[in-house]
Amino acid sequence: xxxxxxxxxxxxxxxxxxxxxxxxxxxxxxxxxxxxxxxxxxxxxxxxxxxxxxxxxxxxxxxxxxxxxxxxxxxxxxxxxxxxxxxxxxxxxxxxxxxxxxxxxxxxxxxxxxxxxxxxxxxxxxxxxxxxxxxxxxxxxxxxxxxxxxxxxxxxxxxxxxxxxxxxxxxxxxxxxxxxxxxxxxxxxxxxxxxxxxxxxxxxxxxxxxxxxxxxxxxxxxxxxxxxxxxxxxxxxxxxxxxxxxxxxxxxxxxxxxxxxxxxxxxxxxxxxxxxxxxxxxxxxxxxxxxxxxxxxxxxxxxxxxxxxxxxxxxxxxxxxxxxxxxxxxxxxxxxxxxxxxxxxxxxxxxxxxxxxxxxxxxxxxxxxxxxxxx
Length: 375
Description:
It contains ten helices and 14 strands. 47% of the residues are buried. By secondary structure, the chain is α/β, with parallel strands linked by helices. Helix 3 (184-198) runs antiparallel to helix 4 (216-230), helix 3 runs antiparallel to helix 7 (276-288) and helix 4 (216-230) packs across helix 6.
């Protein structure tokens, strides 16, 4: 059986509760719940823990299967026995971010002051706030130092934020298809998505939880726009070209082209699992993210970095990863960089399993050997 076919079964969703979290804005969320999953076994020395951070629309279900379900976690090809993040060797943790809608406290959670969903009463959060909540989770597990923090896209941002905030608590970092800060273009795409949601009359200024009508059309359009940025011109050509759903034009505004039908399908499926307000809050957190001034001044010079980018990724282009590498090298940080040749665009971090597995396995093995021998 190949490593790709080995997977974890009976994975359990867990919840970590704590009293309060003081945010970067100065506001307080109380109480807080963080949903998370773990895979593998924590060693007696507690030196084999890897925190995997999810991307924008991901969640804590990164690998394996829930009991009775047939859909694996979003990075199942990378996490499991013998895989890149080898659960026979490492204890892997993945949590749903603060502000999320898959078990962690967010705008759809109950506000204890009103006993109704927060909606826009939920305070604006940042990537730093997400990481501070994760730090409380890691502390609760009795882990003083993580072997690695890794993630793609927004997950890579969280990994970089860990390096900026808690260099003494990590051995290594793997940011994949990420950036030290959002460019104006990245902010612009997020703003289009937010406006699509807020322009939906059913959004109702964020107060839609207790009524039947939801801002599904706006959220679907936001997802459609986002999904275009995740692919590349060549991957869309290969997948759809100008293929028609039927043999002739309809001469109407139905989905004539396969790519139109695909985007409508993805938008429709997305609204069934994601909250519109969470979309607003998390995109804003990504836009606020900026460790360009913090990252070069990591005080612990022994944090090792593996930075991965993809040649066809135009949403988080390789130059942004190269900027990370440049800043780290200028400050003497040990860093390895690889641009993977791929046609998948930004989605490559989910699809280019073989190359990432080779890179991650080798990197983690070396880091683990060094700490095991006290180096």
